[in-house]
Amino acid sequence: MAIQPGKTVSIATRRVGLIGDPVAHSFSPRLQQAAFDALGIAAYYELWQTSADALATQVASLLQPYCLGANVTIPHKEAVLPLLDIVDPLAARIGAVNTIVHRDEYLYGYNTDAPGLLNALAEHNVGTRDTQGNFSLKGHTVVLLGAGGAARSAAFAVTSASATRLIIVNRSLERAQRLATDIGTRFIASPLPSTDQTETTQIFCLNDTKFLIPHPRSIIINATSVGMHSMHDVRTTTTQEHTEETSPLPSEVLVRFTPDTFILDMVYNPVQTRLLIQARALGLRAINGLPMLLHQGALAFTLWTGQPAPLDIMRSTIL
Ligand code: NAP
């Protein structure tokens, strides 16, 4: 059922696509198309390169009968909210939508980045799940690098999973402060250590981490774009060897963390970042952004189709 470029697509075929700018580098088409094909769903995943000026028109076009919805990526995840009929409470709290569902002539907005991140951690045995399926990061300290869109999703995700401590490290301290305020915690700017371990978020400037105190059972999440291939150097394959030379954390800081530290670098292009190389050299467990990409995509697939995502098939297209 996969549609070849240039081939005519039947009107009965459902459409779903990625709204963003740029979109050409995305792994979502192969991830989602493999899932539709595996379940025999007549749907085609397209790339919808969309400028800010064209966003409202593109979103309105999702109301066409054959359209299942869309994924949304940089730079429209926030701007898309007022264009939707109903925004899921989690997405509204985060202030970012990455999945739109066309259902009963309404457009619904969701954020699957946040639960996708937690599913990626759970899959790597970080955190615990109770018998009801509730996931918890109690006892863990999350060191979140970044305060942009992806970091916002991560901050809401880990606080909703009861992480014991959150430390936000960002180049712009002001943006880190705003994020700490938005997630409803009081924040303490470095170098003062946190006294209240459950409700206080520490914030640090990315280039001044000398007072960052490593706690046992830390999870370091890189949600900055440091280490990512620059846009003019976008690769569309996961197998290339090239690694960017930059890392968001110097090795002198990383070396202070205990061996039970887990690192998730949201960057997946390149698949092997400088941060991952540094971490593995220190014997720390570390994964790139592909598991998170997989899980946010699987959740979006289920929202569009109402069916469980064929996770292993989707995984085989990107890992
Ligand atoms: P964004 O909103 O533009 O935020 C970028 C973040 O990176 C900000 O915290 C920014 O700091 C920081 N930053 C950028 N350039 C920097 C530099 N030269 N030095 C230090 N800090 C720098 O982007 P985003 O949507 O959050 O995406 C961030 C990363 O996450 C990207 O690599 C993206 O591909 C990845 N991501 C992965 C997934 C996944 O499923 N794996 C999902 C979403 C995003 P300032 O605030 O100081 O500008």
Task: Please give a quick description of this structure.
The protein is α/β, with parallel strands linked by helices.
Q: How is this structure best described in words?
A:
By secondary structure, this protein is of the alpha/beta class. The protein is 29% helix and 22% strand. It is globular, with a radius of gyration of 20 Å. 44% of the residues are buried. Mean pLDDT is 89; it is low at 191-198 and 231-242. It binds NADP nicotinamide-adenine-dinucleotide phosphate.
Task: Jot down its keywords.
single chain; 319 residues; seven-stranded parallel sheet; 10 helices; binds NADP nicotinamide-adenine-dinucleotide phosphate
Topology diagram in text:
Elements: E1 14-20, H1 28-38, E2 43-49, H2 55-60, E3 67-72, E4 86-87, H3 89-94, E5 99-103, E6 106-110, H4 113-123, E7 128-129, E8 135-136, E9 141-145, H5 149-160, E10 165-170, H6 173-182, E11 186-189, E12 200-205, E13 218-222, H7 251-254, E14 262-265, H8 274-281, E15 285-287, H9 290-305, H10 311-318
Helix pairs in contact: 1-9, 1-10, 4-5, 4-9, 9-10
The structure holds NADP nicotinamide-adenine-dinucleotide phosphate (NAP).
Given as residue ranges, the uncertain stretches (5+ residues, pLDDT < 50) are: 191-198, 231-242
Strand residues, percent: 15-25%
Number of separate helices = 10
Q: Please state how the strands of the largest beta sheet are arranged side by side.
A: 11-12-10-9-13-14-15
Element order, helices and strands?
EHEHEEHEEHEEEHEHEEEHEHEHH
What structural class do helix, strand and pairing data support?
A: alpha/beta
State the total count of DSSP E strands: 15
Mean pLDDT: 89
Distance between the termini: 22 Å
What form results from the Cα inertia axes? globular
Cα gyration radius (Å): 20 Å
